[in-house]
Amino acid sequence: MKEKRRIGAAQSATHVTILDAAQTLMLEQGYAAVSARRVAVQAQIKPALVQYYFPTMDTLLLTLYRRAADLSIDNQVAALSSPQPLHRLWALSSDARQAALAVEFMALANHRKSIRNEIARYSERARLLQAEALATIFADTRYASSAFSAVGISLLLAGAARGLVMEEGLGISIGHKEARAIVEAWLSEVEPAP
């Protein structure tokens, strides 16, 4: 009988350090730069420790994605329970660092089916959370019986914010100020300041 390989504890400081190092590499150099050796250098540990905590790169990348996705869900839940949930969702979606990380995971998903499946699972969960909250918000507005669907608005807000952040990362700014003004004017109409 083959003995199961021991893996380092998920709650340990080393585990978190490895994930932080992998995330830093992904943000600064892209997902292709994330290897056990580079993560070890970034974390200032021996490469064997990376493999002790994460036996495969898929394990490391999936854990990193799940950590980021769980944090994103937690932030969305907090935003949706705030006095101005639409404004908070827009701000979350417009966060440049999170958008850059999302883009790297999307690119990685083209090469790793396990990441693609997790992105789909978490994205659908997040969209449903948003749609439920937006439906409640819209129930008290003129949008309640209109052609605007909560899930459609959720996708449009997230997509517009992500698109703006991605373009800004490339140095493109034409039309950004105007697009932000349109979204923010609509948000203020639907969700006036308390």
From TrEMBL:
Residues 35-54 bind DNA. Pfam families: TetR_N. Gene3D superfamilies: Tetracycline Repressor, domain 2. InterPro entries: Homeodomain-like_sf, HTH_TetR. The keyword DNA-binding applies. Keywords: DNA-binding. Residues 12-72 form the HTH tetR-type domain. This is TetR/AcrR family transcriptional regulator. The lineage of its organism: Bacteria, Pseudomonadati, Pseudomonadota, Alphaproteobacteria, Sphingomonadales.
